[in-house]
């Protein structure tokens, strides 16, 4: 199992990075945050480029490359939810032209004469307010639901979160009627591994953006007649940030490799990736704000968007402490 990109993957990374830098600049993110600009044209550009077709497990590394670059750019589209949360749960029901997301908890399914009835609420669904399809995980199986159908009885409400670009919603099902054909028998465990990997590598991209901005600032900001980047204390913190990001990146891509190879280690690898990304964002967030000084707290500084995206990733799908505990328990059972 190689941990280095091959020539095709390096070319893919360069292609994606170039496209994202042009189509999703910092000015667009600020315009969305301040003026509510529409992100649909950007989403359509991903559709046109074929990025939403990266659902085959064998393409997990290529998908991770895209997600890292989108995390670095604070992507405002439903790409993350669609490709890493919805697609792995619906299998061949997936339509690459349709945005979707997963409802992981709070919903039950009960049998009736017509099929199944879904009831309950999930308070924090990524992109739940703008998804065209929902993959609803219940104890009775996964159900694919069109929330916009007249008979769906599904209500969605976007909730306020500290990341002004991120869409998180409360999704409620009030006796939603679904048929047996809407019930999917899928491997939810494997789907969760993809979701964890996707969130982890997105956080890595956001942390990389923080470091990029810090290094740029350290080279230009002067104190006592020299750039602050020449000070040893600044260099030490920047180095700590770099090491944390590289560790989290390595574990995230290892998780992607285990998914691509259907390696049984993927459960641990995905948890390790999410735990490492969570620890990484904690250190990078702290050092990033400190090295920017008072400027790091201002709305005018684009640093805020990457900081908030990295922190939001830690709060979704379980934090570092939860995944470290799971890893420890797993190893304890092995010995």
What does this structure look like?
By secondary structure, this protein is an alpha+beta fold. The chain folds into 3 domains: 7-93; 100-184, Beta Barrel (Butyryl-CoA Dehydrogenase, subunit A, domain 2); 188-334, Up-down Bundle (Butyryl-CoA Dehydrogenase, subunit A, domain 3), CATH 1.20.140. It is built from 10 helices and 10 strands. The strands form 3 sheets. It has a 4-stranded mixed beta sheet with strand order 1-4-5-8, with helices on one face. A 4-stranded antiparallel beta sheet has the order 2-3-7-6, with no helix packed on it. Strands 9-10 form a two-stranded antiparallel sheet. The longest helix is centred in the middle third of the chain and has 33 residues, at 188-220. The chain is globular, with a radius of gyration of 20 Å. The relative contact order is 0.12. The model has no long low-confidence stretch (mean pLDDT 94).
Oligomer: single chain
Instruction: Specify the CATH architecture of the largest domain.
Output: Up-down Bundle
Shape assignment: globular
Order of neighbouring strands in the sheet with most strands: 1-4-5-8
Class from helix and strand fractions: alpha+beta
What is the CATH T-level topology of the largest domain? Butyryl-CoA Dehydrogenase, subunit A, domain 3
Low-confidence parts lasting 5 or more residues at pLDDT below 50? none
- Using DSSP, what is the number of strands? 10
Helix content: 40-55%
CATH class of the largest domain: Mainly Alpha
The residue-averaged pLDDT reads: 94
Radius of gyration: 20 Å
CATH superfamily of the largest domain: Butyryl-CoA Dehydrogenase, subunit A, domain 3
Structural domain count:
3
Largest sheet: 4 strands, mixed
């Amino acid at each position: 199992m190689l941990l280095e990109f091959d020539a095709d993957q390096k070319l893919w990374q360069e292609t994606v990075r170039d496209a994202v830098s042009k189509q999703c600049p910092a000015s667009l993110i600020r315009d969305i945050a301040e003026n509510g600009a529409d992100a649909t044209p950007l989403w359509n550009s991903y559709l046109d480029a074929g990025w939403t077709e990266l659902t085959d497990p064998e393409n997990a590394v290529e998908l991770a490359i895209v997600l890292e670059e989108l995390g670095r750019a604070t992507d405002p589209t439903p790409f993350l939810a669609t490709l890493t949360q919805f697609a792995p749960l619906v299998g061949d029901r997936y339509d690459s032209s349709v945005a979707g997301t997963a409802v992981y908890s709070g919903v039950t399914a009960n049998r009736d004469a017509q099929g199944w009835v879904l009831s309950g609420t999930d308070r924090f669904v990524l992109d739940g307010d703008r998804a065209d399809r929902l993959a609803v995980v219940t104890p009775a199986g996964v159900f694919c639901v069109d929330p916009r159908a007249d008979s769906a009885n599904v209500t969605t409400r976007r909730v306020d979160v500290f990341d002004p670009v991120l869409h998180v919603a409360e999704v409620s099902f009030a006796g939603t009627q679904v048929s047996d054909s809407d019930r999917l028998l899928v491997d939810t465990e494997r789907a969760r591994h993809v979701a964890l990997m996707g969130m982890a590598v997105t956080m890595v991209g956001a942390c990389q953006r923080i470091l990029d901005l810090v290094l740029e600032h350290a080279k230009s900001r002067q104190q006592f007649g020299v750039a602050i980047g020449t000070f040893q204390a600044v260099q030490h913190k920047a180095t700590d940030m770099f090491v944390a990001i590289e560790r989290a990146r390595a574990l995230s891509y290892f998780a992607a490799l285990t998914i691509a190879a259907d390696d049984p280690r993927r459960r641990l690898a995905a948890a390790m990736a999410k735990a490492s990304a969570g620890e990484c964002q904690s250190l990078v967030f702290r050092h990033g704000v400190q090295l920017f000084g008072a400027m790091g707290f201002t709305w005018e500084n684009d640093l805020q968007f990457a900081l908030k995206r990295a922190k939001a990733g830690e709060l979704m799908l379980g934090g570092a402490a939860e995944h470290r505990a799971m890893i420890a328990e797993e190893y304890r059972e092995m010995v």
